[in-house]
Amino acid sequence: LERSRRTGVVFPLQKLARYLAPGADTARFRLFQPGLAALQRAEALFRSGRDHAIDYVSSAVRMDHAPPPALPEVCFIGRSNVGKSSLIRALFSLSPEVEVRVSKTPGHTKKMNFFKVGKYFTLVDMPGYGYRAPRDFVEMVEAYLQERHNLKRTFLLVDGVVGLQKTDHIAVEMLEEFGIPYVMVLTKIDRASRGLLLKNVLEIQEFVKEKTQGCFPQLFLVSSLEFSGVHLLRCFVAHVTGNLPTVEAS
C-alpha cells in the first residue's frame, strides 16, 4: 500500500489524530510505533508453518484444567458481544486452519480457550462479562488473573461505538486491584463515525490518564472487518511476550 493508506490501516489512531485541534497533545497516540521490519517479524509469528504450529490447545473452566504455564501468555477479555472472538480470528487470519468460533449470539464463549503460537506464546480467549456471562465468570477470571504467573498483558476490549460502560469500569477496577498490566483495545471502529470515535478515544484516554495505574497509555483501535489496527496489535502482542525485544521507530 502507498504510505498514506498504509498508515490508516496499520495506525488508525494516528490517522484519527489528524482531526484534533492544532497544538493538541498527541504523544499518547504514538507511544508504540514499530517500523515495517518489526511489523513483518510479528506477522511471521502469526503465520503457521512446518516448524511453527499455531493450534487451539484446550478449554478450561477452572485453573486446574488450564494447560501448564510454560510460555509467555496474553489474554483477551471484554463485554459479551464486544467482538472478542472476531478480533482473535482476525489476529489468526494468516493461519486459517486455526478454529476460533465466532457466534452472533452474545456470551458464546463460556470457557477459557487457549491457543498456542508455536514455541513463542499462548493467547487466551476469556468468557465475556456482562450480558449472558457464565455463572462462574468472576471466580474463573479472578483465579486466572491472580494465579497465572506467566501472564504478560491483559487486553481489555471496549466497544468503539458505545465507549466505556459500567461493566467495563468493574473490569478496570478488578485489573487495578490485582495489579495486572493491561491495555485497552477499541473494537468495531468501522461502525463508528469519525466524530463519535474521536469523542470516545479522547474520553477513554483521559480516563486512563486520571483513573488508572496499570493501563498502557496508548489505546489500540481495531476493526476485525476491515483489519485496521490488526497488524499493530499483532506487533504489540509479539513485543509484550518478549518475542520482539527491539521495536524500531518508523
Automatic annotation (TrEMBL):
One Gene Ontology CC term in the entry: mitochondrion
SUPFAM superfamilies membership: P-loop containing nucleoside triphosphate hydrolases
Gene3D superfamilies with a match to the protein in the record: P-loop containing nucleotide triphosphate hydrolases (3.40.50.300)
Xref: Pfam families: MMR_HSR1
Native species: Eudyptula minor (Little blue penguin)
Record keywords, A-Z: GTP-binding, Magnesium, Metal-binding, Nucleotide-binding
Family: Belongs to the TRAFAC class TrmE-Era-EngA-EngB-Septin-like GTPase superfamily. EngB GTPase family.
Entry cofactors: Mg(2+)
Residue ranges of coiled coil: none
Protein name per Swiss-Prot or TrEMBL: GTP-binding protein 8
GO molecular function terms listed in the Swiss-Prot or TrEMBL record: GTP binding; metal ion binding
InterPro entries: EngB_GTPase, G_ENGB_dom, GTP-bd, GTP-bd_ribosome_bio_YsxC, P-loop_NTPase
Domain EngB-type G: 70-243
